[in-house]
């Protein structure tokens, strides 16, 4: 549906975007993330035809934005961060105006406007002056103008910015419904929105795409080790020793009562060989007095899944596992990891190496 190939926007005195490459298939809702100044808005404006790239190509459903700009734009609906509204117009007059701009045939305009008003919950507001509406309704009207001509691709820039919680829930639901029939590129600073709405995420930093993947798989691709949190019932020293001796385990970190303290004094993060089970096992697992539980974080020595090995070892020793959970980076942690000052310095170094280039478009 959308293909962005080798796209750059270069300026003389400020950072643009460099060698952006990604594509979107029909029916995808793709989250577009990045810190302020990373190049999100510049990229979205090039996709929608408001800016011309210095280098590279953008195609919408096989149509080149450079060679067939008008036809390509007809396939796009764009909602900028500030909706392009005329506050002195009524809702119906504004949508009629947009229908004329979008060259919707006169015989279809009334039907199409009615469908959009119903879909976006604007019934009863048709004759209301836009200026008098709440921000949530203005955002709905912005979405209405974006989908009025039934585009194949929707580009939404911060669609829930500045809304109250109730309005955010309503707009998210609308976007989810729109994703059933449209391809959606969604820019947002609200990271939980990505997990709620999107089946894929792009992260841009320093004008370059630094990550492209599915939200539920990003942690696996970013993780340097495999970590599991466990709560095990059994004698503390014996449980710690057994966990440390499991093949593939790199370290065992005990969590304190508050779930945050490490037991480094009692059990340093050491290789399994340094903590033989025979030296620490003080009592059998079926002792008369029921032992307390132990909460730990177990880290693999590499990135291999160690859950099965932990289960069989503890089952063999008859230490019941009360909870077991794979620990992974959250989207917030991934975002921060990819947009640190080091990443920005790398992007700046790349710019310096390429030298100053004046804007051509």
TrEMBL record:
In terms of CDD domains, this protein maps to: ABC_DR_subfamily_A (cd03230)
InterPro entries, alphabetically? AAA+_ATPase, ABC_transporter-like_ATP-bd, P-loop_NTPase
- The answer on whether this UniProt entry bears the keyword Mitochondrion reads no
Q: Which domain of life is it from?
A: Bacteria
Sorted alphabetically, the keyword list is:
ATP-binding, Nucleotide-binding, Transport
User: What Pfam families has UniProt attached to this entry?
Assistant: ABC_tran
Q: Which GO terms describe its molecular function?
A: ATP binding; ATP hydrolysis activity
Recorded hits in Gene3D superfamilies, A to Z, give: P-loop containing nucleotide triphosphate hydrolases
Q: Where in this chain does the record put each ABC transporter domain?
A: 2-231
Record carries keyword Glycosyltransferase = no
Stated family: Belongs to the ABC transporter superfamily.
**Annotated protein name in UniProt:** Multidrug ABC transporter ATPase
């Amino acid at each position: 549906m959308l293909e962005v190939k080798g796209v750059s926007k270069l300026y003389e005195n400020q950072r643009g975007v460099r060698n952006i490459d990604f594509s979107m298939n029909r029916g995808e809702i793709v989250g577009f993330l990045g810190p302020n100044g990373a190049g999100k808005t510049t990229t979205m404006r090039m996709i929608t035809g408001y800016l011309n790239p210095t280098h590279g190509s953008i195609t919408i459903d096989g149509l080149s934005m450079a060679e067939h700009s008008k036809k390509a734009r007809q396939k796009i609906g764009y909602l900028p961060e500030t909706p392009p509204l005329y506050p002195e117009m009524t809702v119906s007059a504004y949508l009629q105006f947009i229908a004329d701009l979008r060259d919707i045939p006169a015989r279809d305009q009334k039907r199409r406007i009615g469908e959009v008003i119903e879909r976006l919950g604007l019934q009863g507001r048709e004759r209301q002056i836009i200026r008098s509406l709440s921000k949530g309704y203005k955002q709905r009207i912005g979405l209405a103008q974006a989908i009025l001509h039934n585009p194949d691709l929707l580009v939404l820039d911060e669609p829930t910015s500045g809304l109250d919680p109730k309005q955010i829930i309503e707009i998210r639901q609308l976007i989810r419904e729109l994703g059933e029939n449209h391809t959606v590129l969604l820019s947002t600073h609200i990271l939980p929105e990505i997990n709620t709405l999107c089946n894929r995420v792009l992260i841009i930093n320093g004008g370059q795409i630094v990550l492209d993947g599915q939200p539920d798989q990003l942690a696996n691709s970013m993780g340097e080790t495999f970590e599991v949190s466990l709560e095990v019932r059994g004698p503390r020293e014996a449980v710690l020793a057994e966990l440390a001796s499991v093949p593939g385990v790199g370290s065992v970190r005990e969590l304190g009562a508050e779930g945050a303290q490490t037991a480094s004094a009692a059990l340093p993060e050491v290789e399994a060989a340094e903590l033989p089970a025979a030296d620490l096992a003080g009592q059998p697992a079926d002792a008369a007095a029921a032992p307390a539980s132990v909460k730990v974080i177990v880290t693999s020595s590499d990135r291999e899944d160690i859950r099965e090995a932990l289960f069989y070892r503890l089952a063999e020793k008859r230490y019941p596992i009360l909870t077991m959970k794979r620990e992974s980076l959250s989207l917030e942690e991934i975002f921060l990891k990819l947009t640190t000052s080091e990443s920005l310095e790398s992007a700046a170094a790349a710019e310096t190496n390429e030298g100053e280039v004046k804007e051509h478009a």
